[in-house]
Amino acid sequence: RLDVGRADAEVTERGELHDLFGVFARLSKRLEPGGTAPAEGERPPLEALEPYVKGLLAESPSTQATFLETALERYPRYDRARLALWQVRTEQGDHEAALAAARAVPDTSPLSRRARFAGGVSLLELEQYQAAFDAFKALADQSPDAAVFNNLGVVQLRRGVADRSTGTPIYFFTKAAQADPDDPDYSFNLGYAYALDRDVQGALYWLRESLRRNPTDADAHVVLAVALEGAGSTVEATRERTLAGQLASKYTFRRAGDPAPRGLERVRHSAETNRARRASQAIATTAQRDQRDLATYHLDRARRLFEREQDREAMAELRRVIYLSPYEAEAHLLIGRIHLRAGRPHEAIDALKISIWSRDSAAAHVALAEAWLATDDAALARAEVARALQLEPDSAEAKKLQQRLDGGR
Question: What is the pLDDT of residue 275?
């Protein structure tokens, strides 16, 4: 407990190596008395656990697959290894092998639902749309969740179903967004489906909701530009298209009037929800969304936290700001600086490009120059420093960085 400067007493369990899972179970029970011990199928022998862990840590997919297959040879009931092998085969694009791995998990396994979901994804990638639909529909009937609804929407979108009796893409994407309103992918898929259906107002609303949660999503910006053109807002559309080009080179040369790109729908590969970025942490009630004073309050708090190097807390405040005001330039600038301080230059570059797009400032150009320098791109760093000095000739930060660059020649 950091707030009171107190630590709990140390908890220790010992046992023989072959009793590793037993030691773990006893330790877990002492730390969390209400917890449950791992199921029998989740307690493989050590000779299978070792190659399984090596398979997770190996760098090349072929090496990963070799280790995971070794684990399964030594312990055929190792369903967690089968799902890991499914992931590897999916990443390799071998969807037939991935499907076989998922189908090998028995219905009696605690991981059966995850395996059935994985099998549905493989069927979808194999373009066996009716089989994929049936797989996800069975999961939805058993226990509906956002990921299942999302993938049902993708199936319907890819096979071009408009029959309301089986459910349109918009119907399923709406169910997904309702089940998990804070996930930007579900909002994007719904907005994208509306855009493809030429429903401009629906597209505008849901794409903006997606960008509230993930402002650096180039796909969302480019589809929003198409929707804005459909609504007659050509100036806003140009801004969105320009930003999309800055965030992703594939959109650099898009022109006014180009239709929304095909194939942008997002498949969920796991039924487990990623709650690392929750907008519910970013705003107390939906009624506060458009209150500028609330955004200002959170931005002030973020500045103070950033100055004290409390970056995690500052990032939480900045996400609140962006949720309320997606194009707040200073918020994106501070996010970029936090990423830089944490050694994440590529994430910093995305945030700083949005800051500059929202409001051109010398400070943002200097920070972007530092990010380019961190990726060993001195030429782009020099260009950003030059732009910073154009905007603010007396900028001490820009001059200092220029001296660093000149010294490195």
Answer: 45
